[in-house]
Design brief:
The protein is α/β, with parallel strands linked by helices. It contains twelve helices and six strands. Strands 1-3-2-4-6-5 form a six-stranded mixed beta sheet. Helix 4 runs antiparallel to helix 5 and helix 4 runs parallel beside helix 8. The longest helix is centred in the first third of the chain and has 18 residues. It starts with a helix and ends with a helix. 44% of the residues are buried. The structure holds uracil. Uracil binds next to helix 7. The site of uracil (URA) has 15 residues, from helix 7.
Length: 303
């Protein structure tokens, strides 16, 4: 076979892959899924994540239908290997308040959040909360989607246009990619809890300010205490910096496990790239895939 023919075959093969939606190489070696037996990718982890019969209610909210495209700008987004701990709950208010004790919004948030004994009460508390300026410009509050109790909590930056219209986090294009990323390691809405560091859309999709994230923080802390995750997946720089309270960029943070205290719990947190960034930069999917493999391993090892 001539070099020219080989080239033509390769070009055709790549075009075929592109049509299937395969737009970048994710690992060093190709996996021949056709010769992989009957197990679908992610089977092992799906079984490991089936809740024990006596576990808490893991019912989920339903997934909305097709959603319009969202247009968040400027998202560049962000993990470790510490032992897993299941500490007892502690009152969550203190951490948020400690970030900015003079801010009345933060203090009010701490008081309101601490009173909630389940997620519905926390939602009601958030609906009555006026200490975050984002509320004034947003159409809807986006609290969470997914399981009420989960080993993995996914935290993003802020709702975008689609989320604001629907009132649920991660339902736009980035959310759809997030769902595909989670599905690739055997996870779905029934096994994860998905939220953001702020509950309302920032005007024009700008990055939330410190005041805005601080006023939402006591709610995020209480939410975490109620969901009782062991692991956090932090999507993008804003979420990683905010939850880990560091100033490093996502490219430095991503893929490195950190131990973090949130909602009175000691958790293992993995920063990774934000799906909105991956939509704009498909070549970075390779790094995100490595992070997902690391997450899958950690979930399996601790089950
Ligand atoms: N990006 C985020 O960080 N959160 C969402 O809910 C949607 C897009």
């Amino acid at each position: 076979m001539s070099i020219e023919t080989i080239k033509e075959d390769l070009v055709e093969l790549l075009a075929f892959y592109a049509e299937l939606g395969v737009d970048c190489a994710l690992s060093e070696e190709a996996v021949d899924w056709l010769n992989h037996g009957h197990a679908a990718p992610g089977d092992a982890i799906r079984q490991a994540l089936v809740p024990a019969p006596n576990s808490r209610d893991r019912r989920t909210a339903s997934h909305p239908g097709p959603v319009p495209e969202r247009t968040r700008q400027g998202e560049t987004r962000r993990s470790g290997g510490a032992a897993t701990v299941r500490p007892e709950r502690r009152p969550p208010a203190a951490a948020g308040a400690a970030r900015s004790p003079l801010d009345p919004g933060v203090a009010a948030a701490g008081t309101l959040a601490a009173r909630a004994s389940n997620l519905e009460e926390l939602r009601t508390a958030l609906e009555s909360f006026e200490g975050c300026a984002l509320r004034a410009t947003a159409k809807n509050m986006c609290f969470y989607r997914g399981a009420k109790s989960a080993r993995l909590m996914v935290i993003g930056e802020a709702p975008g246009r689609d989320e604001d219209l629907v009132g649920r986090p991660f339902v736009g294009r980035a959310g759809q990619l997030l769902d595909r990323m989670l599905a690739a390691i055997g996870l779905n809405e029934e096994s994860v809890h998905i939220t953001n560091v702020v509950y309302w859309r920032p005007p024009g999709n700008r990055t939330p300010t410190l005041q805005e994230t601080s006023s939402c923080r006591p709610f995020l802390e209480r939410q975490t205490a109620l969901v009782e995750p062991q692991f956090l997946l932090l999507l993008g720089g804003a979420a990683a910096k905010n939850v880990l309270e560091v100033s490093d960029g996502i490219m430095r943070l991503r893929g490195k496990w950190k131990q973090v205290s949130l909602g009175g719990r000691t958790l293992r947190a993995l920063p990774t790239l934000h799906p909105a960034y991956l939509l704009r930069t498909p070549a970075a999917k390779r790094q995100a895939w490595q992070d997902l493999i690391s997450l899958q391993r950690a979930l399996l090892e601790s089950s």
